[in-house]
Amino acid sequence: MYADQRTVMKNVQLVGVLERMCQGLELTDSQFELAKSRYEGVGRWLADAEDLLIRTVAIYLQGSTAIGTTVKPIGSNEHDVDLVAHVSEPDHIISPPALKAAIGNRLRANCHYARILEEMGRCWRLNYANEFHLDITPSIPNPICGRGGELVPDKELRDWSASNPKGYKALFLERAKLIPQMRLMKGRIAADSAGSHVEPYPKQVGFKGILPRTVQLAKRHRDIHFQNLDPCLAPISVIVTTLTSRSYEFCVRNRIYDSELDLLCDVIRCMPFFIQIDDSTGRRRWFIWNETTDNENFAEKWNADPGRAQAFYSWHGQLLADLESLTHIEGLDMLAKQLGGAFGRDPAAQALDGMTESVSTARRTNRLVAAPALGLGVSASSGSTPVRANTFFGSDD
């Protein structure tokens, strides 16, 4: 076997492990449906209010749940589910505190919601113990944004600030649809045309979606990295998501890759390219713009506290180093140690157990095959050869 073929096969298995790990960090289908029924119930309760202002509120998802990049918080069984309570046509100018108070009063009028309601700085939180919490942020239309943007309360609840949850979601999902160019796929076509029968990629080892999975891995690595540091310095999720999505679009449109893992590493590598830096005043300033509305700088806090920017670059360098090191690891024990340190011991162990179990099961049922230039598969086809149950990191026996 040629060295480059072995590397491709190894990367395929690594992607399978990372995919399984991401699956363990996100909302399950049943959890998502439960959260959906809960926030739809909140919407119905608000819609039945006597207050005409509250009756016009529309509830919808924003953030990681809306775009499929949720990551379970470390040490907690509860996921964050972010919602917007949008008043589309307020009949008068309303302040952030007034709209927030009106929504809170209506929620308190429901005895069930009143028991689990918690007031946060800019939103209301409904705490469903050991499940998730729903954060409900008020919003109104932004009349000066031509892209359908909204206004949400600023941190101090003194004024409205620009945002565009729906536009942000639409842009992210459009980028996620972009299909990368892979040299391996071209090689498979060439092999077929030459009369070779090549085993297709096992469905379970590909990323469910490269862009969402990259965001999840970056966010999880961030949470682990800052566990023993100052968590206030950790880059906020919207910064991680924005830089990842812009980098993904750039990489997919301009480069060709040997594997999904190579693309993953390159997307992470290129993230800082999309941070605008201004040194013209003699004091460095950073800008990570919300492309879907005007004047929303996600890196605004960096300019007040440059330590946040330094923390981002330090974390980013470690994330890239940890991902790039994976292809050089030999042995499942070393792989488990590296993944556990970077992404958490339990998710890494569960993902590796899933990989080795699928290989062992395939071996027991004589469905484990090695296909030309691809690696291990779990379904027989012409041109494939039955093999022993091992991985490219070492035997699972």
What is the secondary structure topology, with strand pairs?
Blueprint: H1 3-25, H2 29-47, H3 52-55, E1 57-62, H4 63-67, E2 79-87, H5 96-108, H6 111-116, E3 117-119, E4 124-128, E5 132-141, E6 150-153, E7 160-163, H7 165-176, E8 181-182, H8 183-193, H9 210-225, H10 237-254, E9 256-257, H11 260-270, E10 276-278, E11 285-287, H12 300-304, H13 306-325, H14 332-343, H15 345-364, E12 369-371, E13 375-377, E14 385-386, E15 390-391, E16 394-395
Helix pairs in contact: 1-9, 1-15, 9-10, 9-11, 10-11, 14-15
Summarize the entry for a quick read.
This protein is globular. It is built from 15 helices and 16 strands.
Task: Describe this entry's structure for a reader.
The structure is a single chain. With 397 residues, this protein is an alpha+beta fold. It has a domain at 31-160: Beta Polymerase, domain 2 (2-Layer Sandwich), CATH 3.30.460. It is built from 15 helices and 16 strands. The chain has helices at residues 3-25, 29-47, 52-55, 63-67, 96-108, 111-116, 165-176, 183-193, 210-225, 237-254, 260-270, 300-304, 306-325, 332-343, 345-364, and strands spanning 57-62, 79-87, 117-119, 124-128, 132-141, 150-153, 160-163, 181-182, 256-257, 276-278, 285-287, 369-371, 375-377, 385-386, 390-391, 394-395. The strands form five sheets. Strands 1, 2, 3, 4, 5, 6 and 7 form a seven-stranded mixed beta sheet that branches. Helix 1 crosses helix 15, helix 10 crosses helix 11 (260-270) and helix 14 (332-343) runs antiparallel to helix 15. The longest helix has 23 residues, at 3-25. The protein is globular and about 65 Å long. The relative contact order is 0.13. The model is unreliable at 189-204 and 367-389 (pLDDT under 50).
